[in-house]
Amino acid sequence: MRKVGRKLALISSSLAFMFTFVACSSSTTSTTSPETTAAPSQAASAAAGTGGKAVGFIFVGAKDDYGYNQAAYIGSQAVEKAFPNLKVLRSENVPETAEAERVMEEMIRNGAKIIFPTSYGHLDPALNVAKRHPDVLFYHQGGLKTAENLGTYFGTIWEPVYLAGIAAGKMSKSGKLGYIVSVPIPQVLLNVNAFEMGAKSVNPSATTTVVFTGSWCDPAQQANAANSMIDQGIDVLSQHQDCTKTVIETAERRGALSVGYHAEASVLAPKGWITSSIWNWSDLYVDMVKTGVEGKFKGSKYDGKYRGQLKDNVVQLTSFGSQVPDDVKKLVDKSKAELVAGTLNPFNGPVKDQKGAVKIEAGAKLELDKLEATDYFVEGVIGSIPK
Amino acid sequence: MSILLPVERRMGKPKWEVMLAPALVVLAPLLAFALFLLASGVNPITLYGTMLKSTFGDWYGFGEVVIKATPFILTALAASLPAKAGMINVGGEGQLAIGALAVTAVGVYLLPSVPGWIGVPILVLVGALGGALWASVAAIGKVKGKMNETITTLLLNYIAYFTIGFFVHSLLKDPASFNWPFSKELAGQLRLLTFSSASRVHVGIGIALILAAIVWFLITQTRLGFRIRVVGGNVLAAKRAGLKDTKIQFWVLIAAGAIAGIAGMIEITGIEGRLRPTTGMNYGYLGFLASWMAWNHPLWLIATSFIIGMISVAGNSLEMNSGLPASSVQILMALVLFAILAVGRRKQA
Amino acid sequence: MNGIDIGTGAIRAGTSVLYASLGELIAERAGVVNLGTEGCMLGGALGAFAVTVWSGNPWLGALAGGISGSVLALIHAFLVITRKANALASGLTVMFFAIGLTSFLGRGFVNKQIHGFEPISIPLLSKIPFLGPLLFQHDGLTYLSMLLVPTLWFLLFKTRLGVILRATGEREEVVYTYGFSPKWIRYGAVMAGGFLTGIGGAQLSTAYTHTWVENMTQGKGIVAVALVIFAAWKPARAMLGAYLFGGAQALQLVVQQQGYEISPFLLFMTPYVITLLALFLVARKQRSQMPEGLSKVFNGAGGG
């Protein structure tokens, strides 16, 4: 035993020193971080995205979560159908760490020339991999940074959320709305703000109370939050979670109204369903893959930051629940027409935060980067963001 | 795996068991998992083939295994050392996280322009201190409150997770990241050296192997190691022999935390470059499993860490090629562990 | 803020943990620590949900959840009792196994809707001010858990079965003199514990959330193990501990709704911090009350 152990110790420590030595000697030629080392090797002869055997999709959660990931998964199915010659590679539960880099590399090794990292936290890993593989095209969902062969896309989901806020503000008897959210990130805060603004446009005294669950999918905590909010007199619940079923069902059982997110889920709440904001990735994904495969990414609308809007049908408001009265529907439809026409924009200044400080100046034009980096709640929201 | 079984341990068992046990440990889980694969409509032979190819088929794949194995070796050491002293540390998870947190905070705010040859060693110490600090909560609880360290370290993992969340959402948040919960990036000279631009392998594996050798030496070749093993073997006997068991256990737990904290340092400086809410998630648990798979032997656990690293890397190709969900990898790992536990309790190394 | 709301919130959030604690308490009274509680809960949650989907009957589902918990506990019992494996390592492995297995098998159930347990207002009693809304507007499994606490106390401390069970964890020789085998009593206790823990999972999936999602217990099983120590192996104190944990969850949500400037992440960790503090405060004097068989696991040679 001792002998075996000694030998092993010897081997492992000599290995260790060898590694260290090699590293030190090679450090003069290679630089310190992988991001800076990987210069685009040879000028890609073909445009990024062409000539692939497969398309890769990376999901941060389970692909059948009745929510965010499922919406992207449905989009990937549309790609599968539209391009029978391309294999669709999927990887789910991919953490938002450097772990994602390996998954993307593995996809490239399996013949993928187009990759969709579908969660915000996959952006930095995707940028690293994009540098190493100039021939591979990346479409990142929700990012604000781009590269030669990496474009980002997203949907202005706050538009339908604003409309849902109008319906919720009209339907609420107490004027107290609740929003059960995961963690304080910009997409979440932006939606809460849009919802409150929509509600306030029809009921100036409407408030939106926010509860964080700390997780993208923790049904027990969601149920705790929903019950607690209803106990406090809130009568309309919306949410920003990856899995959305529990909050809707809990609201229904407690007799509260529901505004959905990610998915049309009226079947879960026959009595209390109002409406829902959803993604419609299918046509967009297919078009983006087509653009990439044909080598037309450079100069296309996807080369940069593409944001699909209500008018592009990338984000949608689902049909209303049966008990939503006609006047509410009409009101929502009117605002929807104005949003589509561009005559209405809730984020045109002045926009004030919870404490009354002006966040968007009067007359200021909407800036995508600023809007998608929201770090405040607007007036009328009850809740606290860690500073 | 059969070569992984230390010779000495086979003594004192009936002959057939000596022969059978190692074979069983290797074959039983692979066979059981093959059945499971067949039941899910996947051909196990081609799948095992693909998994091997994706990990040992080229240098990139093998490099990824090395990167994965590095933190596992350290968190496994953080479980094995206390195990020698009769304790179960399941807190590698939280200790790694707090180590990573400390390294990020110090690296980003105190050492942005310090040269690497000073900065990196400082960060190793900082990571170790962070991990040790977190372990000290459990160690103090054990000594002062007689709280069982298994339970406390497990609970502390949750608290560590939310602590990271607290910091990346507030004080450490990178202003240039559009208000997303990431810390600022570490300066380039503080990143661990890599060997080539083709792979992400960095010198962290060297640190891990050296630490494994040190722990092995300490346990088997020194008086202190002997004391630790006496405490671990039988607390009562240790007391009669006049050994201060609580003091030894206290410091062993702290040392374990320090090792896990270094894993956090390596993850930040070697791979991630910045702190994210889920940095290093599950590494502590997987390291714990690696340690138990190796009967807590500080050198054999290098091999088991590599095996777990391999299974995790191969898991990606398993998922892409078979359509099976990621969770099937966890099932395979648990099966391996069941086999090891079923083969029976081993003599202390 | 309102005391009734936090109280009801505590019961709602604490009931699944209460079941798991009671289950663990039985196993530990027989001298076996089962850290696989988390896994048994998950197994119970999925088993109950699946059978409720298929049969439409949540009681049948709860039964299946209990059985799932028992089966997972049986793996642990075999490894620990027959193969003499380290109890803590074996429990953790059962936990990992169950996490993997349930996420694998549960995929088809994420989208499923069930007619699970619904809250039942008990006539008359639910009208009592304060106590009515607090105690008498819950689902069937919650009422059952409240009845289970005194029942378990009675079984443990007032019956021959209880004496034998406790002796198994304290003094094996006594069990032999009664003519029983401690081994099989341990098997029985671990499986009975797994059954209750499984029902805890069932409460979570079929009564409280009506949802199955992978890994939905989120550490509740581990908290349950900690609470058994806090409870000094007494059912009533396990109940107190479970509601304390649930109450911390409910309280942090109410605090969030007031809009105080406290980081939600500090609030998220409070239930775990409180559990830890409670353990610290009571652990010292409780050593004497620990079943002797356990102290081997908790203090003895764990290293091999």
UniProtKB/TrEMBL annotation, chain A:
PROSITE patterns named in the record: PROKAR_LIPOPROTEIN
Alphabetical UniProt keywords: Signal
ABC transporter substrate-binding protein PnrA-like domain residues: 54-336
Keyword Metal-binding appears in the UniProt entry: no
Signal peptide: 1-23
CDD domains listed in its UniProt record: PBP1_BMP-like
GO cellular component: plasma membrane
Protein name as it appears in the record: BMP family ABC transporter substrate-binding protein
Species: Paenibacillus roseopurpureus
TrEMBL record, chain B:
Membrane topology: Multi-pass membrane protein
Residues that span the membrane, as ranges: 60-82, 94-111, 117-141, 153-172, 201-219, 248-266, 300-318, 324-344
Keyword Transmembrane part of the UniProt annotation: yes
InterPro entries in the record: ABC_transp_permease
Compartments in which it is found: Cell membrane
Any one GO molecular-function label of the UniProt entry: transmembrane transporter activity
A single Gene Ontology CC term: plasma membrane
Keywords associated with the record: Cell membrane, Membrane, Transmembrane, Transmembrane helix
PANTHER family for the chain: ABC TRANSPORTER, PERMEASE PROTEIN, GUANOSINE ABC TRANSPORTER PERMEASE PROTEIN NUPP
Name of the protein this chain belongs to: ABC transporter permease
Taxonomic classification: Bacteria, Bacillati, Bacillota, Bacilli, Bacillales
From TrEMBL, chain C:
Lineage: superkingdom: Bacteria
InterPro entries: ABC_transp_permease
GO molecular function, one term: transmembrane transporter activity
Membrane topology, from the record: Multi-pass membrane protein
Keyword annotations from UniProtKB, A to Z: Cell membrane, Membrane, Transmembrane, Transmembrane helix
Membrane-spanning residues: 59-81, 88-110, 140-157, 222-245, 265-283
GO cellular component: plasma membrane
Cell compartment(s), UniProt: Cell membrane
Protein name: ABC transporter permease
Organism, scientific name: Paenibacillus roseopurpureus
Origin organism lineage: Bacteria, Bacillati, Bacillota, Bacilli, Bacillales
